[in-house]
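Quarterly update from the structural biology core.
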Amino acid sequence: RLAPNMVMLKSLSDEDYRKIAELTLNTAIQRSITGANAGKRLTVTASKAFIDFLARQTTYAPSGARETIYRADALTEQVINYGVKAAGPERESLDRPRRIAIDFDPAGPKAVVTVTPRSRTGKVWRDGKTFQISVDFDPESGTFQQPGAHSLSLY
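Predicted structure, tokenized:
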């Protein structure tokens, strides 16, 4: 006999966790480019490899989707913040609008953040010099490590 308040659910599949990670990623991106953050004029994209990484690293079946949502959101926000605060070779202002593309290199393991600073002259937007930062992932702590000066590479 089951308890009256018990709910039986089917376990989530790997594909379910991937979809949850992707939805959480998109929510974190929207939060970083809208509302109070709209003035930053950011454009953020992420690769399928980064979504797969989030799904792999944030899945903890006993807690269902809760852990995936919480950790995928935190990791995405962490990488976006590194892209926002990264200074390129020209040491331009951090207040400049920028395009941020997030990818994941499993060989590292590390996130590769490609940043393109942008400026506007009149109504025309111009791209600055694109650069990349590598952000190492520490599996033991489950977080990305602060990128150092050595992680910058030019395009």
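The longest strand covers residues 110-121.
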